[in-house]
Structures are given as structure tokens and as C-alpha cells.
Amino acid sequence: TDQSRLLEEVRRGMIPAHIYNDEEVFQLEKERLFGRAWVFVGHESEIPQPGDYVVRRVLDDSFILSRGEDHQVRAMFNMCLHRGMQVCRAEMGNASHFRCPYHGWSYRNDGRLVGLPFHKEAYGGEAGFRRKSQTLLPAPALDTYNGLIFISLDPDAPPLREYLGDFTFYLDYYTKQSAGGIELRGPQRWRVKANWKIGAENFAGDMYHTPQTHTSVVEIGLFREPKAEKRKDGCTYWAGNGGGTTYKLPPGSFEERLRYVGYPDEMVERMKQTWSAEQRAVVGEDGFMISAASAFPNLSFVHNWPKVEDSDDVLPFISIRTWQPVGPDETEVLSWFAVDAQAPEEFKALSYKAYLMCFGSTGMFEQDDVENWVSLTNTAAGSMARRLLLNSRMGLLEDDSPVVDPLPRERFSGPGSAYVGYGEYNQRHLLRRWADYLEKPVESAATIRVGGDQ
Ligand code: FES
Ligand code: FE
Asked: Which residues make Cβ contacts (< 8 Å) with residue 319, sequence separation at least 6?
């Protein structure tokens, strides 16, 4: 069929241009991809106390992420069991109960239905409607890694660890710089008129756009590593369910390289204690500093080190974001600032400033990027785009062999494969995964009868 032919092209790195703005493709993504994959929704540090909650979505489905009195984190489908009203309308807060605004049914913060106005008069009490054991629908699957909370709409989803695979090795650089883990600020939340895949692909591996798209940021001297010649010495790695880019740093030890990007000694010491020998070797012996990355499908990371104001000092920051699809041509971006929980307060404050300057709704990189992505999305909706197969084969020769060989273990200590220089390796990895999901039909899920036997 037409569809499987196009998915075959995608696997070869030839991208049907219309997938970046197509209602039919979007419906498939909704059902076959976001209906099944593990999706990042928040971090445990956002809800540290019993009763703390945030409301997050997986496409159209709203979930209350809440920490119960038993300290357990739960994700509950934010829909009242009575007439389906959204139970919690605030975005975050602390509550022991949620009361539905429509007729007043109330639920404990672990989801149990505890209050049902006029239970006796309206239903004849328990005989007519069994209130006991009714709960808001739990997310079909929930799991965490380093405090990152993921949910899946598929009750048969593989364990999260298995799904993430060796990408966890790289996740630690962003989310575990000490035993204390990270704390988050935000998220800032905004919408862009662009397809969600473009951002995910860009963060995964587009080292190629930096010298062009971000010329102005380079020109004003915000970075110490602006040169395109330097950028191509970095490597692109992919492992398990995600991949990213790195910068090659000047020679030095593990400690010297982390100091070079602006980490204070005490943080460097904790990283040394927290990371494995291989994790240390990627930075130290191999000399690659982790930069942007994406985990399939729509979770991305940034690690960068811009100059601080007028000085020559640089300061690193970490940001986490999701590209949450709203429609084929619209994405809601949720962007968090992340920092090691044990970092000195002064570092946290300055690092936050560095983040705001570069990313988030005020970030200079953000403005540059989005202009391109909106324009691309617009053009992808036209009928000419349906005739076009874009070439996303950078780094490959005609026979599919790579232009450069993957880095051998002596030069790259991390799992997965890594290539030096420009190449669309990771964009292809992401889209191949995307094709795998889109190809596989979903079985319809079991229905849950409110008030019936569970
Ligand atoms: Fe929630 Fe009626 S819809 S109480
Ligand atoms: Fe960019």
C-alpha cells in the first residue's frame, strides 16, 4: 500500500515532506504512537509533599499527577466518573481531595471516590451505586527513572527501563549529577504552530543547523564554542531509545573538562562519585561533553554553557522539555529548568539565568529555531509537499554505509553507536522508530464500567 511504501522510504532516510503537517498521519500518531509509547509527564521533585499535584496531558488526555499521603506518586485520569467533567481544573497545587465542580463528587488525592452528594436519596445508597472501591481511572502504566515520571496509555507497555534501554546511561548526565538528583523549575508552557516531530529531531541530532540558524547568537559572542569547525569534531550518539550530540572539548582531565564548562569543584567531585567509570570516561578520556538530546518520542534535553554577562566565564545549565502534539501543525512546548539538587544556591541562581537567556519563551535560541519550524510546517501542508521525499541521509553513502565509521570503544566509552561529524543519524533513528509504531495496528482497549464490578 501507499502507506507502507512511504514508511519504507522513511527507513532509508527519505522523508515524505507531508508527514510534518497531515491530519491523517496525526490521527495515526495519536492512536498508534502516543496511545502506546512511554511519555514523560513530570518529575518527582515537582510534587515533593503528600497532597502536591500537577496536571499534565498526553495529547488530549489530562492526568492528575499526585503524591498521596502514603508518599506514592499516582497518575489519575482527570475525568469525573459521574458525567465526565474535568475533576481538577488547576494546574498545580496541594490538596487532600478533589471535588468535581459539576455535581460535587469528591475524590481523595489517591483517586478513591469518597463523597457522593445525596448518595442515599439519589441512588438508594450502596445498593444502587457502589461508592466503595470506585476510583478515578489510573494511568494504564506509570514508571520512573531518576525521578522522571513517565506514563503509558498501554497497560502492556514494556517496563520503562527496557523501553529506554541504554539511553539511561546518557540520561544520568542530565538528571543525576549527585545522589540528590535534580530539582526542576517551571515548566514554562507555550504553543508553536509547528509539527512536534521537528523539535524532537532537531534536539536529537541537528548539529548542522547551529552555524546557520543561530548565527546571531554566535556573533554576539554568547558562546565560547561558536565555530562550525569545532562543532563538527563533536560526536552524535544513539543508544536504546534516545540519542544526542556532544562537543569535543580541549584536552584535559575529567575534572578539568567539567571546570571548563563552568562547574564548581564541589559539583565536579559529586559527579565523579555518582557516575560510573564509563560515564566519567566519555567526558574525561574521550573528551565529549554531552549537549542536546532526545528520547523517543517527544522528550528532549539541553546542556549548554553560555558566557555569563560580560565576563569570559561560562556557566552550564540543563533544560528538559516535551513536544506535546496539539494537532498536525501545532505543538505545546513544556520547558523546565533542571539543576542538581545539591548544587550551591549561587550556582542554581546563575544557571537559571543562563537557561532563560538561551531557552524557554525568552530564549534566544528558541526564537531562531521556531521561525524555521513554523515555516516548514506551513509548507508541508500544500499539495506539492505530497510529491516530495526529503533527503535525510546525511552521513550515509548511496549503499547505506556510513561516511565515517562509528567510533570504536577506545575512543568512545558509552553504549550504543557514535559518529564524529555531521550526520542525520539520530533523526533517522527517531523516524525509524516512529515508522515502526505507525505500522502496527492497536488492539482496542478494554472498557471500564463505572459502578460495575472492577
Ligand atoms: Fe462530576 Fe457530576 S460530573 S459530579
Ligand atoms: Fe537550535
From this structure: 301, 302, 335, 336, 337, 338, 355, 359, 360
Nearest CA to ligand 1 atom 3: 83
Pocket mutation for ligand 1, best pick of 62, 79, 83, 137 (most atoms within 8 Å of C-beta):
83
Last residue of a domain, one of 112, 144, 176: 144
* Ligand 1 within 6 A of CB of 100: yes
Q: Ligand 1: which atom is nearest the Cα of residue 80?
A: 1
Tell how far the Cα of 209 is from the centroid of ligand 2, in angstroms: 7
Claim to verify: residue 320 and residue 365 sit in the same structural domain:
yes
Q: Which amino acid is at 215?
A: T
Closest-approaching ligand to the CA atom of 369: 2
Pick the atom of ligand 1 nearest to 103's CA.
Answer: 4
Cβ of 119 closer than 6 Å to ligand 1, yes or no, is no
Nearest ligand to the C-alpha of residue 107?
A: 1
Q: Which residues contact 133 (CB under 8 A, 6 or more apart)?
A: 454
Which ligand ends up closest to the CA of 98? 1
Claim to verify: residue 182 and residue 301 sit in the same structural domain: yes
- pLDDT tens sequence for the chain (454 residues): 788 899 999 999 999 999 999 999 999 999 999 999 999 999 999 999 999 999 999 999 999 999 999 999 999 999 999 999 999 999 999 999 999 999 999 999 999 999 999 999 999 999 999 998 899 999 999 999 999 999 999 999 999 999 999 999 999 999 999 999 999 999 999 999 999 999 999 999 999 998 889 888 878 877 776 565 566 789 999 999 999 999 999 999 999 999 999 999 999 999 999 999 999 999 999 999 999 999 999 999 999 999 877 778 899 999 999 999 999 999 999 999 999 999 999 999 999 999 999 998 888 889 899 999 999 999 999 999 999 999 999 999 999 999 999 999 999 999 999 999 899 999 999 999 999 999 999 988 888 889 865 4
Distance, first Cα to last Cα, the chain: 41
Per-residue CA distances from 231 to 237, 260, 317, 361, 425 (Å): 14, 16, 19, 25, 16
Q: Of 144, 178, 193, which marks where a domain is finished?
A: 144
Q: Do 47 and 195 fall within a single domain?
A: no
Alpha-carbon gap, residue 322 to 298, rounded angstroms: 5
For residue 228, how far is its CA from the centre of ligand 2 (angstroms)?
14
Contact indicator for 182, 341 with CB cutoff of 8 Å: yes
